[in-house]
Design brief:
30% helix, 507 residues, single chain, globular, 12 helices, alpha+beta, 7-stranded mixed sheet
Amino acid sequence: MLLAPIWIQWGLLVAVITVSILGSRSSKIPLLSLVTKPFLALLAMHSVSLTEIPLKDDALLITKCTMQRDMNFEEIIIGSGSGGTMAAQSSIDRRKMVLMLESGTWIKPNTPHHSARQLAESFSFGGQEVILGRQLIPFAQGKAVGGGSEVNSGLYHELPESVLNQWQEIVGFSLLDWESAQGSLQEMLHVQVQEVESLGIYGSSPIVRLAEANNLKWKLVPRWRKYTGTEFTHFGMSTELISDLQKKGLTLLEGHAAEKIVVKDEEIQVHVSGKECEHYFTSDKLTISAGTIETPRLLIKSDLAKPKDFEMNFHAMTRLVAEFPYDVNDLEDIDPHQAWPEDLKFKIGAAVSTPALLAATKTNMGIQTEAEPSKLGVYYVSTVPEGTGRFVSLFGFSVPSFRLTSESLKTIAENTGFLGKSLIDAGASKIFGNLDNPSISTVHIFGSIPLGRSKLVDKYGFVRNTGNRVRVCDGSLLPSAPIVNPQGPIATICKVISEKVNSEYWN
């Protein structure tokens, strides 16, 4: 396992030892299950087989720093994900000296998508993080130039109308503002529906069959990818936007993390550390786009907020493995179809099922089958959870938590049961996984500083008591669960807000 907070490392150690002795039975023992069950889910998401190509010794090394120790900028942007990139795009034509800080690095061209190497190189703590609560919930967040847009499956959803209306009322943007930002984003990232000839076996999708059998809506979800046969080009923020912004004058400092912010009357100071260096950059304006988890941590470390100032939200995802009498998995990409009911109470899709991750899932779920990997698919149902989310201090480390209500746990189990039934309707011969008490995980985290509810920021993300000089611009601002994959909605709302900020406050 890669570096993670010490409490996660100890938890993994306990889980591994316990599971090695008792096997999957450990998750059925009440006291032991508190530790082992959530980490079995985490291991199922992120463990890999020993047959995958090992990391080279220099895989995690960061390029040597060539930046001057102390410099002044007109604006500093912390984070290069969807929010930070939208902020930079809005700023670069207005300001000449803009610095973008990114704690991750450029994704290496030879790093396979959805691989062990990508997890190690381009995810925070190698993808090994959890949300505390009645059930520990594993999650993963990207850590690379371009953020999560570089490591996900490129699925692009427009925000459902009901959610858009709610956000519009809270923030106060016009529908024209939203549609303009959304259209621009789609064009920049080459959002397109995958052509039928490149779908391969996914042209006959179990998700479509289960949708039609249960009167669900379904869709071949557009992606920010271009396919040529089985090969694809992934259009994330880095290659399509950040590289172009660098040509226009953006200074990108990768492999450097913002450690602390000090807001003074005359300037904003940002303490930054690299692998073998540190800097104290100053600026008149600061945009924090470190993400749903890291933005709150940075604000807390900088004494600009306390753990009680934050919430937490996510899409609760439960997974099942289905065995079919025919091929449903090409072992390289995901099935890009998704299905949902009219009321959007849940969403069904396919999870990553590359050979290494599929093998890990089988091991950690205790699945015994001789079926060919191509006949096994991992599918999820996503539910918007009900409960209370917040941040807590644990051994001096700010950790997200979410206490699911009993009713929400019941709903998640019911939705998981429906997923199992619907996969049988789609032709599955066997279903593997716990339908009654499923392990919950997520790759969609957001809403730690929700606009409209948070007293820490105003409707444009300006942090209180900073004189409109420090703002937040990332997924932490989402006013409510987007229901769909949040990458598109995050980028769009950040683009809309950035234009408002730059035209009305920072012009």
